[in-house]
Amino acid sequence: xxxxxxxxxxxxxxxxxxxxxxxxxxxxxxxxxxxxxxxxxxxxxxxxxxxxxxxxxxxxxxxxxxxxxxxxxxxxxxxxxxxxxxxxxxxxxxxxxxxxxxxxxxxxxxxxxxxxxxxxx
Length: 121
Known about the structure:
Elements: H1 5-10, H2 17-34, H3 48-59, H4 65-74, E1 79-87, E2 96-101
Antiparallel strand pairs: 1-2
C-alpha cells in the first residue's frame, strides 16, 4: 500500500469510525517510534524493505532507505539476521537478507518520524 492510501480509504467510513481509525493509526505511529511493534506487522521472516514499508504505511511518508537500514541495524535486539537466508524481491541485484524480530521490546535510540503539520514535534 502506498503512503497515504489508508487515509483516503478512511473517508468513506460511517459515523465517527474515520476518527477512530485516525486515532488508532496515530497511536500505532507513536508506538512505532519507541517500541518494536513494527515487527508484529511483518511475517516471521522479513526483509528490511518489508519492515520499512510498515513504517512508511503507518507514518504516511517515504523513508530514506540507507538511513532506515543503518538505524534499524544499529538498534540492539530490534532485528536478528537469519544466517544464509535471502529472498528475491523483484529488484535488481542480489536477494535481500532475511531477518526476524529480535528480543528487544523498546527501541533505544527511538526511530523518530519527521514532524508533520498538525502533529506535535
